[in-house]
Design goal:
The complex is a heterodimer of chains A (243) and B (292).
Chain A: E1 3-12, E2 15-21, E3 24-25, E4 30-34, H1 41-48, E5 56-61, E6 65-67, H2 72-75, E7 80-82, H3 95-103, H4 108-112, H5 117-130, H6 146-160, E8 164-168, H7 176-191, E9 195-199, H8 203-209, E10 212-217, E11 220-225, H9 227-232, H10 234-241
Parallel strand pairs in A: 4-9, 4-10, 7-8, 8-9
Antiparallel strand pairs in A: 1-2, 1-3, 1-5, 5-6, 10-11
Helix pairs in contact in A: 3-5, 3-6, 5-6
Chain B: H1 2-27, H2 35-52, H3 57-79, H4 85-104, H5 106-109, E1 122-125, E2 128-131, H6 135-158, H7 160-176, H8 182-208, H9 218-231, H10 236-256, H11 260-281
Antiparallel strand pairs in B: 1-2
Helix pairs in contact in B: 1-6, 1-8, 1-9, 1-10, 2-3, 2-4, 2-8, 3-8, 6-7, 6-8, 7-8, 9-10, 10-11
Classes of the chains: A alpha/beta (243), B mainly alpha (292).
Chain lengths: 243, 292
């Protein structure tokens, strides 16, 4: 296990968003996280990446690092990063700079006297080519189409070369050609041994990509296991259809 | 000619102020309305050190920059607790605090009486001594400082550090996902900008040879902020152009023939009108790219 939660709990104004959740994500696998709207999928990602603090419980990274509090800027140091359900780009910066910024030295002095300009430029252009945005590299991020914005977010993730990636509905609103790009990127990341957590509503994509699947409902773990088995379970179908 | 030199010196000093504020506001998106405080700390440090302790201008300038660095770091650390528009409100508060100190700590600053008799800069290297006592020589000195500050701002803008600042301006939280501690960057650029403003303060004190707290009010901070919005946020050229326009505009009004008291009022109205028109039709300023 590369990432685990133990009794993770978060409530908003009395509503349990994540309710004492204990789950684990296996290294090198794609884990699909599904559940009806409001089941706590995005909240889980927000908790694990430090976007919102959890009330209680624990996050364990690589068996050894135990966190009762997760800071956004710290988790990246453990090789975790994410995409967003509502894409968050650096809107008034060129596409190329959106990627280059991920490659920059993290310390203030390191960034001020950066010495790897050409290497980073080549890397940024490589990942933009990978997602089909090389031709758009000088365009401002805000001028991209919705699908291109999603792809740019994925390019940023690729540039960082993380160990664990949370994809929050990366296929939503994508044209079929763009979907193919994202599918191929995820498969390539899997071959590289990266751990991926995929929040997605499209069950076909979950079946196609996931090695394992966890189902959330009202912040609780409803089911987990191999996707075809999990998706056939009566309680999962009921949770989705509200029966 | 002396009149033109006088204007050019003022333009140089205010261009330094605009460039330095642009680092924090334009690039990092820290909406600071306290720049006049740092301008004032630099000016008062130079004035006090040179008139009371006979310290050379250039040494006083360095000491002033160091004092400003400490003050701005502390102010920046507090402001980092605020989000969005509250940063601007908090920074106004700090400008008022610094102004009140300048006004009321009379043993040090002489309060409303101000500090007169500030000497012009003198340079002594290897038996060569030079005094920037004429306005023309002072203009050359001010232009040298302006060039240095411009080059520093350009270096920062083009560095990876500058790119990170812009990303912070765009979406600080999204940047932190990639392991950046935005606070460190914001504190660094806020402090650097403040130190450069203190350089402008030192030049101002040495040029006018008299300072009092009335120069370092919130109005002055708003004036500098107006210059960079007018010229274009996140543009070094824009900052300089904004300073040129705002310093020279009232001088043009003089030639229209208004009485001086009415000209002063008209100037404020024209500033306001220009900003409103810009916000409506060109929110990125005269030569800027970044939209508020």
């Amino acid at each position: 296990m590369i990432l685990q939660t133990q009794h993770l709990y978060k409530h908003f104004d009395g509503v349990k968003a994540v309710d004492h959740l204990s789950i684990s994500f296996e290294k090198g696998k794609i884990t699909g996280v599904i559940g009806p709207n409001g089941s706590g999928k995005s909240t889980l990602i927000n908790l694990l990446t430090g976007f919102i603090p959890f009330d209680s419980g624990e996050v364990i990274i690589a068996h050894t690092h135990h966190f009762t509090k997760v800071k956004c800027s710290d988790v990246a140091g453990y090789g975790l990063t994410r995409t967003f359900q509502d894409v968050r780009l650096f809107e008034q910066m060129p596409v190329l700079d959106n990627v280059l910024v991920v490659l920059t030295e993290r310390s203030v002095f390191g960034a001020l006297f950066e010495k790897h300009g050409k290497f980073h430029l080549a890397k940024a252009e490589e990942v933009l080519t990978r997602v089909g945005l090389f031709e758009k590299r000088h365009a401002l991020a805000r001028n991209l189409s919705y699908g291109q914005r999603k792809l740019l977010e994925i390019a940023r993730v690729l540039a960082m070369n993380p160990e664990v990636i949370f994809f929050d509905e990366p296929f939503a609103g994508l044209f079929p050609e763009m979907r193919k790009v994202v599918v191929s990127v995820m498969q390539e990341l899997k071959r590289q041994g990266k751990t991926q957590i995929l929040v997605e509503h499209n069950m076909e994509l979950i079946r196609e990509l996931s090695d394992r699947c966890v189902v959330l409902d009202s912040g609780e773990l409803l089911a987990e296991g191999e996707p075809s088995h999990v998706l056939a379970k009566r309680e999962v179908i009921e949770a989705y259809l509200g029966e | 000619m002396e009149y033109l030199i006088h204007l050019a010196i003022l333009v140089s000093i205010y261009a330094i102020l605009a460039l330095s504020l642009n680092l924090a506001v334009g690039y990092a998106g820290i909406l600071s309305v306290t720049h006049a405080a740092f301008f004032g700390i630099g000016a008062y440090a130079t004035a006090i050190l040179s008139t009371r302790y006979d310290v050379n201008f250039f040494l006083a300038l360095v000491v002033g920059a160091a004092l400003t660095a400490v003050a701005s770091f502390l102010i920046g650390a507090v402001l980092s607790r605020f989000r969005g528009d509250f940063v601007a409100l908090g920074s106004v508060g700090f400008n008022m605090i610094v102004w009140s100190i300048l006004l009321n700590w009379q043993e040090l600053t002489r309060g409303p009486l101000g500090i007169p008799g500030i000497g012009r800069p003198e340079l002594g290297i290897w038996n060569i001594e030079y005094s920037f006592s004429s306005n023309f020589s002072f203009l050359l000195l001010a232009l040298c400082f302006l060039l240095l500050v411009y080059l520093a701002a350009r270096f920062i803008e083009r560095s990876s550090f500058g790119r990170v600042l812009k990303a912070i301006r765009e979406d600080e939280e999204a940047l932190e996902v990639f392991g950046y501690k935005a606070l460190h960057y914001k504190l660094a650029i806020f402090t650097i900008g403040a130190m450069l403003a203190s350089v402008a303060g030192a030049l101002f004190a040495a040029y006018i040879t008299f300072i009092d707290p009335s120069t370092f009010t919130i109005n002055e901070s708003i004036f500098i902020l107006s210059a960079i919005i007018l010229g274009g946020l996140a543009s070094n050229k824009g900052a300089v152009i904004g300073a040129v326009v705002l310093i020279l505009l009232p001088e043009l009004l003089r030639f229209v023939g208004f009485p001086s008291d009415i000209a002063a009022q008209t100037r404020q109205a024209v500033y306001g009108l220009m900003l409103i028109v810009l916000m409506l039709y060109r929110p990125q300023g005269l030569v800027g790219e970044y939209k508020l």
